[in-house]
Design goal:
Mean pLDDT: 76
Strand content: under 5%
Number of helices: 5
Shape: elongated
Protein name: TRAF-type domain-containing protein
Radius of gyration: 43 Å
Structural class: mainly alpha
Helix content: over 70%
Largest sheet: 2 strands, antiparallel
Order of helices and strands: HHEEHHH
Low-confidence stretches: 1-6, 111-127
Number of strands: 2
Length: about 220
């Protein structure tokens, strides 16, 4: 009898929770049919999609660095996270994290050796295995962060290579244009030198002709 009443009470409580959840869902759908992100303004068709957008997609929301517990505590806008990976603060945090992991691994080895006996061997083995798994997870996270940084640097290298190629092509074009302009200037100089020579000859002829005219006038 008591058991049946208890089960009935539990069912009633479950129904109340389900009803409350449905009421909240209906309220969100009716009062907020197209909720928008308060950071970037993107409109979503449901609160679940909005929450997912803010958790994974929104580029204007500030998030904490994965190495916040190792000295990199600055909140960074998600869209600027790749630039943050290249910052001096983040690189120092990576070094600090790696040094801490190596130090903890070194300190754990003597403790495992001194505390190992027949009675505590299974427990020590379990603790050591758990510790190794934790360390491996930390190392994997660091590798992922470093991989993101390497990927970013690789992208920057490719971009700079393309820009350098464009600059080289532009320089080659300028050199060809400059060479053509230099040849044109040389031709113009030769032409002007020829005109100057002809002008000098013409001036001499004019002077000679003038002398002859003056002489004829003097004779007459």
């Amino acid at each position: 009898m008591f058991q049946s009443k208890l089960e009935e009470q539990q069912l009633c409580e479950a129904d109340l929770v389900a009803t409350r959840n449905m009421a909240e869902t209906d309220h969100l759908q009716q009062s907020h049919p197209n909720p928008s992100c308060e950071y970037c303004g993107k409109k979503c068709d449901s609160m679940n999609n909005l929450n997912f957008h803010k958790l994974k997609e929104c580029g204007k929301i500030s998030i904490s660095c994965a190495l916040k517990d190792h000295g990199c505590s600055t909140s960074v806008i998600r869209a600027e996270m790749l630039e943050h990976y290249k910052s001096e603060q983040h690189q120092n945090a990576i070094i600090t994290f790696i040094c801490r992991v190596l130090s903890e691994s070194t300190n754990d080895q003597p403790e495992r050796g001194s505390g190992m006996d027949v009675d505590t061997l299974p427990q020590t083995t379990i603790l050591s295995s758990d510790n190794v798994n934790i360390q491996l997870q930390k190392v994997c996270q660091t590798i992922d962060i470093l991989a993101d940084g390497v990927s970013t640097l690789k992208g920057d290298t490719q971009r700079l290579s393309h820009e350098l190629l464009d600059i080289r092509n532009a320089i080659d074009t300028w050199n060809r244009d400059f060479s053509a302009l230099k040849i044109t200037i040389q031709k113009e100089r030769v032409y002007l030198d020829g005109l100057k020579t002809n002008q000098d000859v013409l001036n001499q002829d004019v002077a000679s002709l003038k002398q002859k005219v003056d002489a004829m006038q003097f004779v007459s």
